[in-house]
Amino acid sequence: MPGGSAAAWPHVKPIFQAIAAKVDGEPCCEWMGENGAGHYVKMVHNGIEYGDMQLICEAYHLMRDGLKMTPDEMAEVFKEWNNGELKSYLIEITGNILAFKDEDGKPLIDKILDAAGQKGTGKWTVISSQELGIPITLIAEAVYARCLSAMKEVRVKASAAFRERRRRFRGNRAQWLTDIRNALYASKIISYAQGFMLLRAAAQQYGWGFNYGNIAKIWRGGCIIRSVFLGKIKEAYDRNPELENLLFDDFFANEVKSRVDSWRRVVAGAVTKGLPVPGFSSALAFYDGFRCENLPHNLLQAQRDYFGAHTYERVDRPRGQFFHTNWTGTGGRVSSTTYNV
């Protein structure tokens, strides 16, 4: 994901592309744009990686604690999933990890402390999204989930203080596994849609002419998030290079629609059983918010205007006209300057 001088790129391109990973004979390396464009694309790649890993961990958690499956049983499920639409490096290594035995012959996964580390790229991605006003909610939840996991001693104390009888999932295991698979795939679509939303906003802010299809193409090999899924993203941007949001592509829209019932069952089931699924649930909440024509934030704007005279727009007036109401009948007609961070 090199960036920087356009004039310098032709000189280093043969070297970089010669040593890059290849998919179908094509090097997974292209110039991203001027200045820090390459670093920014790499940062968002890592943010999406945080989301992918969190979603896989939630699927594992639901199988382990909701379905009471053994590591060997879960390994077989992930190996099966790696033969379909979820085929990816992270799904592949998850199956390998779950099947791996320690020196005593017992699953090593059960001996690893559940306190995650992080180097900061996910956090930087979330900070940038806040500066640009782009709701990458799933990636943010993935970052905070790692932060919560690191609070091991506090969680042990809270577990004793707030103990509940955790009930396992009832019903057909095969159906639950299908639902979890569908929830994972639908949530993954949301994660990438959010990541490409951020790239689009950054391109507008910093004057970078990103080729989104090329970005998806170079992520197909040599990257942690490499997967067959990225080929579908490349195809979406080939169909429409000006695609406003990945969810508006017919393929991805239909994939989400066909899985939404499973997705809702998984999130509802996890909440009922007391199993945390911040990635699945935040992705679903984003999807529902994204498709909601009338959100409740007209009330929020009224509240802001009431206590701070921050003004609001009206549905019966053109966008860009701002109004203030003297809600209490006192204090005069003074209003705040209208601005948005």
User: What's the number of extended β-strand segments?
Assistant: 2
Following the backbone from N to C, one meets helices and strands in this order, namely: HEEHHHHHHHHHHHH
* General shape: globular
Number of helices: 13
Task: Describe the overall structure.
This protein has 341 residues and is mainly α. The chain is built from 13 helices and two strands. It has a two-stranded antiparallel ribbon with strand order 1-2. Strand 1 (22-23) and strand 2 form a beta hairpin. Helix 8 packs across helix 12. The two termini are 30 Å apart. The mean pLDDT is 94.
List the defining traits of the structure above.
341 residues; single chain; mainly alpha; 59% helix; globular; two-stranded antiparallel sheet
Briefly characterize the structure:
With 341 residues, the chain is mainly alpha-helical. Helices cover 59% and strands 1% of the residues.
Question: Layout of helices and strands, plus pairs?
Answer:
Blueprint lengths: L8 H11 L2 E2 L2 E2 L9 H30 L4 H11 L7 H11 L21 H12 L4 H14 L1 H10 L11 H34 L5 H7 L10 H11 L10 H24 L4 H13 L6 H12 L33
Helix pairs in contact: 2-5, 2-6, 2-8, 3-4, 5-6, 6-12, 8-11, 8-12, 9-10
